[in-house]
Amino acid sequence: MEPKKVTQLDLRIVVSVFICCAVATAFQALNVKFPVGEMRLDVIQMMTACISCLLCCQDSVATSKKAGIMRVIVTAIGGIVGIGVMALHMALGSSPWVLIPLVGLGVLATLLACKFADVPYMNARIGCITFLLVACTLNGQARMFYALFRLLSTVFGAAVVFLVTWATNGDN
User: What distance in Å separates the CA atoms of residue 72 and residue 56, rounded to the nearest whole number?
Assistant: First the structure.
């Protein structure tokens, strides 16, 4: 049995998460937020960027890039379906009872859209998480901006992973 030790991949994940946390915290300290009514949304969502790091960081630049692209695709699909469901929900009167079947249809639409995009099924489920967050976390138009900033934060996290992997890996 091999001894358990900290690997280069572990360190790349830690560095990537650290960078995302630092940038998100700096944005918050500088009050870089987007106003939506009474709310002020984070432009770089710390948790979203860090999750992107955990899911995208791989052993090589090529596999990290592929994982990052896949993550952005499923996040975009889930966000777009979520915005569509949000618009339909608002058009139908915003009743919580109307949202229930729309959520089911949205999950199905996300899974199907991911199939058409040739996304592996496990990644499609991650797209459904984005859909659910967009459709169910906030109310009204804030959901649209939440979806946009979630996508931006995902792209940011994937880009950080790519750069950290490129800078620390011998295959670049």
Answer: 10
pTM, 2 dp: 0.89
> Torsion-angle region of residue 37: left (phi > 0), alpha (psi -120 to 50) or beta?
left
- Look at residue 170 and give its three-state secondary structure: coil
Helix (H) or strand (E) holding 40: strand 39-42
Residue with tokens 């249809």: 105
Tell me the C-alpha distance between 12 and 64, whole Å. 11
CA-closest candidate to residue 133, choices 63, 47, 56: 47
Assess contact for 155 and 51: CB atoms under 8 A. Answer: no
Q: Give the tens place of pLDDT for each residue, 95-142.
A: 889 999 999 999 999 999 999 999 999 999 999 999 999 998 887 778
